Amino acid sequence: MSIIIVVDAKLKEESISAAAKFFAEIVPDTRGFEGCEGVDICIDSEDTCDLVLVEKWASKEHYEKYHHWREERGDLQKIRALLDGPVSRRVLNVLDT
Hints:
Helix content is 40%, strand content 31%. By secondary structure, it is of the alpha+beta class. The chain has one domain: Alpha-Beta Plaits (2-Layer Sandwich). The chain is globular, with a radius of gyration of 13 Å. It starts with a strand and ends with a strand. The mean pLDDT is 96.
């Protein structure tokens, strides 16, 4: 069953351009990772510090493998350094309709 991951976080104001550059560098690898069905990096139109990631994965297992890979590479630590506060993450099952 496909899943959607929604990550909501606040960027440090001084990190907005660095975050845009960093995500531009890593998103191609995410999109090419086994099981990735799509990923969008979004910034709120009224609050440019509000970052939302929307990812679609073939399964929770695919996503967990990807997340572990990013953690091992140190990418998640780099992302956390750009953030101002905690991260909210939701895992949603896509219903077959």
